[in-house]
Every structure is written in structure tokens, then in C-alpha cells.
Amino acid sequence: MTTDWKALEQKYYMQTVRRQPVVIVRGLGSKVWDDTGKEYIDFTSGWAVDALGHANPMIADAIAEQARTLIQTSNQFYTIPQIKLAQALVENSALDRVFICNSGAEANEGAVKLARKYGKVKKNGAYEIITAFGGFHGRTMNMVAATAQPHYHENFKPIPEGFKYVAYNDVEAIMAATTEKTVAVMLEPVQGEGGVIVPDPSYLKRVRQWCDEKGLLLILDEIQTGIGRLGTLFGYQSFGAEPDVMTLAKGLGGGVPIGAFLAKEQYCVLSPGDHGSTFGGNPLTCAAANATVRYIVEHDVPAQAKKTGEYMLKGLNELKKKHSFITEVRGMGLLQAVVFDREMSAAVLKECNQRGVLLNGVRPNAIRIMPALNIGKAEVDEGLRRLEAGMVAAVATVAKPQTAEKR
Ligand SMILES: *Cc1c(COP(=O)(O)O)cnc(C)c1O
């Protein structure tokens, strides 16, 4: 008799996510298998986390070896994987120091604490942080506040203060919102969860200039865009503008839960007692991340992601030419979206699951594609074939346009 895992989940788990009806039990590279043995091409890679694919033997070996050596002590002591990872991140970025934590939201929390303290000691108590509508910064209370999407606030009031929202891709809006209370601007180089919104090529450079002029910290939330996703190791390198503070998570650990925030030396104002973490920077996750980051740098995986991304974008644009229900294909590197003329993401996901390709429904009328950075061309081709068949099946089941996309 087979176990009904979906029924057990419904009984025991908090119902906070709309899950797709697939029980994934195993993965290898860019493929996964469900509990019935069915194979899927994985265009989601664990929400842009499995940067080097599933069950990567190099990462698995690093984890296994570290697990047999030392999993956890605490930050009372020095541990070598943490120091090695810190070195790898600093030497390969424009930032000078790092703090390692356990998730994206936590990395952003640390960055905000750093900015607030900087404002307190260096900028007359300035505390306000400007963020952009449509952005996404995580699920802790402060990151709910930083995320300028009202539907995330609704059930959780009072929402912490100290964030001001402006339109994305609009430097003048940031200028207009800046006051003597402003200490930082926090943005994603490309908005991921907001629908894969790529800003104007000059946007970040111009924000950088404004921050320099006003002495504001530029915090880039690179939790999704960092570690090769946009075709450069960090997203800011694709836009020619360096942050003062940068946050990482998702792809950083090659699958294990880990986050980090980095800052330039002059902004490293947190002192002993200001911040900490029990699990943050533990040897196990740092060994996995260290193996992941060093492999990505040594093999120039970002360049590979860039090439594969261009190949995929070409394929998606061919689908757009063939099918009028696709209104837009957009993205950068291996972070892409397909936009429809109607709200049919759910139907597309359902039909695509049946045909063996996993996707993310980023908007009611748009799907997001974010495969492993080392996905092969053959898997891209096969994934796109299944996606096309799934979209064509879905479009027949969903009535013609009600709403165009609202941006
Ligand atoms: C996923 C994401 C987060 C939140 O990361 P968690 O690890 O889920 O806390 C924050 N910012 C961006 C840009 C993200 O994509």
C-alpha cells in the first residue's frame, strides 16, 4: 500500500503554502522524481537555491565529510569552514566583511540592524530605509515591513516602522523620498518574487550616485540575484554599481539553509553584543557553501549561466512568436518569466506538472523559470518542449483575458 503523503501533510502541517500536488523524493542535476517514480525537469531549483543542481556529488561529499568531523560548536569559538567561506565571499566581492546567518530574511535583518546603528552613530540618528514597491525581502516582521506589497501586511498589523516605499526603477522617486531621517536605500538588482522585473541598465548606477551624494547606504538584496543567477557572480556586477551592504542566501549553500550579509569596512559598525546567531556560520552549512562558492568561481559557472540564459531566452521568444497568448518574455541570466494575456499560471503549472516540468507561478498571469545554473542545453530543450505543450493545453481551459498585467 502506498502512503498518501498529501493527506498527511493536510492533517499535520500548517496550511501556509499553496503546494503543487507533487511529492518530490529524489533529484539528480536538473531532474527530480516523485513518489510514483515519475521524472520532471526542474525549472525551479528549490526557489533558485540548488545552484549546482540536485545531489551534486561535490557538495554531498563536503557535507558528509564535515558531518563526520564537526557539525556545530558555537560562535564562542573559531571554526575553519566559516573562516574559509568568509574569505571566499570577501575576496570575490567588493565588500570587506561578512556575517553568516541561516536564511535570506535573517540576512536582511542583519543588514537593517547595521544600517540603523550606522545612522545612530554616524548620521544623527537617521533610521529610515527606502524600499521599492513590488520588492520582496522576506517574512520576518521587519522584512514584511520592508516588503512594499500591502497584501503581505494586512494580517500582521502593527507593522514595524522605519521603511518608506517608492516606485521601482525610478531614481527621482528615491530622491523625492530622501529626508534627513533616511539612512539607506534597499533594493533588489532585479525584482524576483515581484515578477522578474529588470530595471533600466542605468538605474542602479544612478541610485549609487544619489546615495554617494547624500551619504546613504546602498543595500542590495542579492538573495535571489547573487551567486551567479544573473550571469555574473553578484547581480551588481551586471549593472556596474557596487553596494555598501549586500545580502545573500538562496544559491549560497548549494541547497543548505544559509544566508549572509556583507559590508564595506567603513560601515562595519556592529560590535560585540550587537548581533549574533546560534546556528549562523556553523561548520556544516559553511562547508557546503564553501564548496559551492569555490566551484562556482573556479569554473566560471556565472558565465555558463549567462550563455544558457541567452539560449533559453531565445527559445522562450520563439514560443512567444508562435503563441499569441504569450505577451512578454523577460529576465536576465537564468531568472526569467513568461507573461500571459490572461490569468492562467495555475492552469499552466498543473498541465506542466502532468507533462513533467516544474515551474513557479510568480503572478496570476506569469510564470518564473529559475533552473540550476549548470542546467544542460538538452534539459532546457526538453523542458521548453514540455512547457509549450503544457501552455497550449492550459490556454484551452482558461477564458480569454480579464486583466492585463498591472505594471
Ligand atoms: C527569497 C528572498 C528573500 C527571503 O529569503 P528567505 O531565505 O526565504 O528568508 C529575501 N529577499 C529576496 C530578494 C528573496 O528572493
Describe the 3D structure.
With 407 residues, the chain is an alpha/beta fold. It folds into 2 domains: 5-55 and 301-395, Aspartate Aminotransferase, domain 1; 70-298, Aspartate Aminotransferase, domain 2 (3-Layer(aba) Sandwich). Helices cover 38% and strands 17% of the residues. The chain contains 13 helices and 15 strands. A 7-stranded mixed sheet has the order 4-10-9-8-7-5-6, sandwiched between helices. Strands 1-2-3-13 form a 4-stranded mixed sheet. Strands 11-12-15-14 form a 4-stranded antiparallel sheet, covered by helices on one side. Helix 4 runs parallel beside helix 10 and helix 11 (301-322) runs parallel beside helix 13. The longest helix has 22 residues, at 301-322. The model has no long low-confidence stretch (mean pLDDT 97). The site of pyridoxal-5'-phosphate has 15 residues, from helix 5.
